[in-house]
Predict the 3D structure of the following.
Amino acid sequence: MSSHSLPISSLLALFFLVVLTRVPTILSVDDPRYSTCRETLTCGSVSNISYPFWGLNRLSYCGQPGFELRCENDVAEIMMNENTLRVLDIDPERQILKVAREDYWNGYCPTKFINTSINYDHFNYGSNLRNLTLFYGCNLPTTPTFTVFTNCSINNTLTDMSYATRNMLVDTRYSTCRGIVVVPVYEAAAKDLEVNPMTIQAALRGGFELQWKADNDECRRCRDSDGVCGYNQISSSFTCFCSDKPSETTCLPPTEEKKKTMGKGLILGLGLVVAITILICFLVLWFKGKSLLNQGKKKEDARIEAFIKKFGSLAPRRYSYAEIKKMTNKFNHKLGQGGFGSVYKGKLPDCRLVAVKVLSESKENGEDFMNEVASISRTSHVNIVSLLGYCFEKSKRALIYEFMPHGSLDGFIYDRGLHHRSCRLEWRTLYDIALGIARGLEYLHQGCNTRILHFDIKPHNILLDENFCPKISDFGLSKLCERKESIISMACARGTIGYIAPEVFCRNFGGVSYKSDVYSYGMMVLEMVGGRKNIDVGASQTSEVYFPSWIYKHLDQSMNLNLNGVIAEEEEEITRKLITVSLWCIQSDPFDRPSMTKVIEMLQANVQSLIIPPRPFVSSPVRSPKTLEHQK
Ligand SMILES: *[C@@H]1O[C@H](CO)[C@@H](O)[C@H](O)[C@H]1NC(C)=O
Ligand SMILES: *[C@@H]1O[C@H](CO)[C@@H](O)[C@H](O)[C@H]1NC(C)=O
Ligand SMILES: *[C@@H]1O[C@H](CO)[C@@H](O)[C@H](O)[C@H]1NC(C)=O
Ligand SMILES: *[C@@H]1O[C@H](CO)[C@@H](O)[C@H](O)[C@H]1NC(C)=O
Ligand SMILES: *[C@@H]1O[C@H](CO)[C@@H](O)[C@H](O)[C@H]1NC(C)=O
């Protein structure tokens, strides 16, 4: 070994130290909803508008339904029932919205007679108002009660308009009127009108006040914790967006110290990362001629060796390569083959049947190997495969699992191509499998200190035991992360096309988190449903129909799935449930996807109580199982 290897390895160590400590801080300040909702809305003369209002640059999750503002020619407007109300002022302190009827802004002769009506779910009239009652075309005489104007031209017909400055009991006396409209005005304006009838237009333009109510206390607490108020459209409830993730109540207050050093730390960390990366690239190029390849391999081996040592007692039993050979009867019975290597049937000395996965020799597999050992060794759950042992001897690496007589789930859901094993499962079994996988994933996501993200949930990685009880396997791409960090950083996106969540390969969709597994789970369940022959996909096999889109359309149409033949009610209910849940899981915004706990809850709920999700965003994805492949 050359004497130059020492500075490189220490530099590498420093590099990883910097990356590990700094990069997560940089990447975690990236919930796009936080920055979107922190912006205020400005339209014409109304400015600095925030929660519960939304519209224009503020997306719908920044406010409550019923508080959407539109901006027409620099005039802010809010719709309430049939009324278009012009927003004159917003007082966030007192929660007062000052509005005027748009149709009475330029005159008291509207072309349509519409009463004022507000959305009482969110608003109440202010206390300083009076109702103006406007009568059209009744030929009323001028009396102390009524002031009459005779010059309205409505739809080219001359019409008289009389008004009373209070609520009027409308009886048969007014049956000849073309229309009667009630418009609230300020008490003071009504008093002015009694003195001077010519101020009618000023009174109408003066508008009226509405008091709103919308999670005021929650929002104040959220703001006090440096959060931004928002709305969760799934649970229809208040949400506090923090710089890294949403919270139901408030953001964890960063300590003053942290706040101060964060800015400096970010720049320093970033600078270091860049400088060291350049240095390392330089050194790597320089050393390339010196059989670095060989060295790298040795280092990799040393790393894994160190990892196993560190793992100590937690790790399952270690076997030698000779033992593996004996166990598998010289690799006699091959069960399967993948990009990672091959799987063989084997027998432990105590006669237990096992599956032995022999990893092919590549650098990537070293990473996969460690992920697998680290993740599975920490788990013990009926829906997660158990790792019984491993082999690590120079370049020979193997993992030993319990044997699953029914193989992997993909053999049961695809009917085409190479899968000769294919045979149909009962709907009930499919449901139990979906529920079992959900439980396994929930367990992984909810782990007490470390949360395990799988990142490669797909039918090929679900194994079935003799009772068709599903077990999650293949943790090669998994990530262990601290329970408290919800958004994780990823150096490279890996996963399988068709199951990989959009945010894993495109950060615009939001941070990578446990919700990325939820997405893969949803795609898988859809395939479990869609792979069943007795659903008529309604298109020839050759046409490129995207199954989630197709199924969504049919779900929309009163969920009337076109099931061939007679299907028991229970089975239909199961299908609907699986579809509804999976469509929730594949929402493109991770925020809209349920947690696995929620998925289990939904799977066990009555189908009638499930809300049909919004249409998932789709853009000609790859679905055909034949084209599935490992992505680097
Ligand atoms: C905007 O509104 C917030 C409260 O909603 C207030 O604290 C802030 O001072 C306002 N800014 C301006 C420029 O009016
Ligand atoms: C005026 O005409 C429009 C369009 O024809 C119609 O919708 C409206 O009801 C009419 N208004 C009145 C007061 O008759
Ligand atoms: C408005 O409300 C009054 C009663 O308050 C009613 O008599 C009148 O017909 C309503 N007008 C319209 C256009 O609905
Ligand atoms: C005005 O009329 C509406 C119903 O049209 C009523 O709810 C409201 O209380 C009235 N306001 C006043 C001040 O009388
Ligand atoms: C009706 O006449 C009054 C004066 O009597 C005038 O101020 C008002 O603008 C006129 N309104 C319309 C709609 O012509």
DSSP finds 16 helices and 27 strands in the chain. The first helix runs from residue 5 to 28.
